[in-house]
């Protein structure tokens, strides 16, 4: 039982490049979330999903897209990376809504030059 | 605007003493609160939670207190241990979790 895994762990991009971050969970959770953590800012919600085939915007969605084609996977895309997207990205999942415990992945450290 | 505030960025406590981490919130609609613990290079892990119908919840060395009238909650760790050194995030439940900025706790031997 791996829990929540994230791929890749580290990535360096040039401004304007695109990439996709993959999150996978093996706990059969309905809800999945993408957060970013910046120094002194805590965790901010980018997008979330309440089930397969659904997505919704969080607090800071601009510049990101997401897809939830399979229940166990939640993808975060950056179409044209900007230096302001340099951050640590965390994926999380929960069985039910936000009152349920969220389980976090180990994070992806992204640097955009 | 930050709806969950942790006004102390850091806290240092001696081993064996009590650690008290504080959290304030502004939205009176929040009805469920959680504390997460985060070690460097790892994702946050759930520590303890409290529903707004309670004013206290205990789990071993960890106790969370909720004062709804003051919109304030606190996490008490007794006794503190060096392994408790981590960043602690307070979170409040709305349509999603609203996190504070975190408090870095250092427990010294």
Strand content of chain A: over 45%
Alpha carbon gap, first and last residue of chain B: 38 Å
Number of helices of chain B: 0
Number of strands of chain A: 11
Overall body shape of chain B: globular
Rounded Rg of chain B: 13 Å
Brief digest:
The complex is a heterodimer of chains A (113) and B (109). With 113 residues, chain A is mainly beta.
Write the layout of secondary structure elements.
The complex is a heterodimer of chains A (113) and B (109).
Chain A: E1 4-7, E2 10-13, E3 19-25, E4 31-38, E5 42-49, E6 56-57, E7 65-67, E8 73-78, E9 87-94, E10 103-104, E11 108-112
Parallel strand pairs in A: 2-11
Antiparallel strand pairs in A: 1-3, 3-8, 4-5, 4-9, 5-6, 7-8, 9-10, 9-11
Chain B: E1 4-5, E2 10-14, E3 19-25, E4 32-38, E5 45-51, E6 56-59, E7 62-67, E8 72-77, E9 86-93, E10 97-99, E11 103-108
Parallel strand pairs in B: 2-11
Antiparallel strand pairs in B: 1-3, 3-8, 4-5, 4-9, 6-7, 7-8, 9-10, 9-11
Index terms:
heterodimer; A: 113 residues; mainly beta; seven-stranded mixed β-sheet; four-stranded antiparallel β-sheet; 0% helix; B: 109 residues; six-stranded mixed β-sheet
Description:
The complex is a heterodimer of chains A (113) and B (109). Chain A is mostly beta strands and 113 residues long. Chain A is built from no helices and eleven strands. Chain A starts with a strand and ends with a strand. Chain B has 109 residues and is mainly β. Helices cover 0% and strands 56% of the residues of chain B. Chain B contains no helices and eleven strands. The model of chain B has no long low-confidence stretch (mean pLDDT 95). The interface between A and B is medium-sized, with 23 and 23 residues.
């Amino acid at each position: 039982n791996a829990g929540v895994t994230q791929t890749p762990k580290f990535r360096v991009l040039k401004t304007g490049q695109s990439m996709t971050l993959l999150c996978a969970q093996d706990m059969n959770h309905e809800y999945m979330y993408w957060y970013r953590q910046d120094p002194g800012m805590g965790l901010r919600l980018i997008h979330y999903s309440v089930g397969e085939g659904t997505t919704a915007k969080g607090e800071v969605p601009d510049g990101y897209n997401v897809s939830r084609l399979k229940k166990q996977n939640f993808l975060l895309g950056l179409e044209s990376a900007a230096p302001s997207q340099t951050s640590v990205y965390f994926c999380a999942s929960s069985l039910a809504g936000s009152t349920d415990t969220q389980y976090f992945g180990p994070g992806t450290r992204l640097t955009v030059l | 605007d930050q709806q969950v505030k942790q006004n102390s960025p850091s806290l240092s406590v001696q081993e064996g003493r009590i650690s008290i981490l504080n959290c304030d919130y502004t939205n009176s609609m929040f009805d469920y609160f959680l504390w997460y613990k985060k070690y460097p290079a790892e994702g946050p892990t759930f520590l303890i939670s409290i529903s707004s119908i309670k004013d206290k919840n205990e789990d071993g060395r960890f106790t969370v207190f909720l004062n709804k009238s003051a919109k304030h909650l606190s996490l008490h760790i007794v006794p503190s241990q060096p392994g408790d050194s981590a960043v602690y995030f307070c979170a409040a439940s709305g349509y999603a979790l609203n996190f504070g900025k975190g408090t870095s706790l250092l427990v010294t031997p």
